Amino acid sequence: MTVSAQPVRRAAPLTVGRYTLYEMIGAGGMAAVYLGRLRAGNGFSRTVAVKRLHPQLALDADFVDMFITEAKLAARIRHPNVVATIDVVHDGPDVLLVMDYVQGESLSALLRRVRQQDQWLPFDIVSGIFCGVLAGLQAAHTATQDDGSPLALVHRDVSPENVLVGADGVARVLDFGVAKAAGMSSITKEGTVKGKLAYMAPEQLLGLPVTPCTDLFALSAVLWETLTGRRAFKGDNDGETVNRILHEPIVPPSEYRPEIPAALEAVILKGLQRDIGERFQSAEEMQRALEEAAPPATSRKIAEWLKEVARESLAEKALKVATMESSAPALVDAIIPVEQDRTELDLASSSSLRRTSPRWHYLLPLAVLLVAAVALGAWALGRTREPPIAPVAGGTGTPTVVATVSQPTSTRPAPLPSAVASLGDPTGNHALPRPTATPTKRVVPKPTSTSLYSRD
Hints:
Elements: E1 3-8, E2 14-16, E3 19-27, E4 31-39, E5 45-53, H1 55-58, H2 61-74, E6 85-91, E7 94-100, E8 104-106, H3 107-116, H4 123-141, E9 153-154, E10 163-166, E11 171-173, E12 180-181, H5 202-205, H6 212-228, H7 238-246, H8 262-271, H9 283-293, H10 299-309, H11 311-325, E13 334-339, H12 358-384, H13 418-421
Antiparallel strand pairs: 1-13, 2-3, 3-4, 4-5, 5-7, 6-7, 8-10, 9-12, 10-11
Helix pairs in contact: 4-6, 4-9, 6-8, 8-9
């Protein structure tokens, strides 16, 4: 693999209201999730995760209504084990759900990593993660309306992808994008089943009313998978998966991992009961049973374990955030090292992204004038210095002073680079000039950006 320096075009960030969207960090059927930045007055800024409704769906009034309504529901949940929703924005074609950004790894990514490393998750780590998730679900299930009445919120899509283990060792539930409060059936089209099939409870598959117990069934299926490395009900096709959930005997996880404690297995099997009345009746009840069956690890121990398992991924994410936080409001082309066989994702051609950074057009000329003033001052200072004294031949006689001051080729500053001369480009695409082959000419330094972000 060879590496060379060549110009690579990076897409400018998308700015919607107070939020600037940089790199995509996830995508689903309804929306894409971006690493973003909230910029407010007095220099205040904050890193956020921004879920942006896909442009084609933003044209559907029903989808927009569902997106905004569920965002408002999610915003009612305030708990350390839930990724907080902090804002919802509807600005023309853009519909955004703004959430706290939490650096960490999804449970699905962690399961892949441990499988690749031929390892198992320790029982106390598993218990610590799932106790945190249960605490978050309990907060969601008991959320209330403004008048204090129950909101009856059910996640409906509990899965490994929607469990985030933070670098701080705290597990969080995320993506309440398909959550639905009881009585809101007018928003969800009749006959539509939302969620991931392999984790759905029987009542959800059959189109019956969902309850908090529906989420507990799904979480029990995720727990079964976390301990065994395989899915509890996954079939060769959707029909077989549905049949296993509805009819086939539930296989104890110890058949695939005999060292699973009996008490821990009992918790899983109770959560997977087809009869809702035989399951745990609340997330809090299941959490207590799990804590007794397998004492949970502390958040500090989980954080240490996570660092060992996902060290490179966490470092890469931290670097992305640091680069974004130190970047200028807009991006320009830059000469950077690029791997020859690497495919660069360039969203500059996407009609859905708008380049909106008017402040840069004001700051760039000021920077150029400042550089020019410094260069002119340095030239003027050079004229005031005393000329060097030529060496004297021999040891006697009157020394001869020889003036050797170099005269500048022009009394005017050097011409500005073409990138600076074209400040009127409304797109903000300023091509940087290539290095000149004449070292004696004074060249005004060109403006650059440290941001390397090019996608969602």
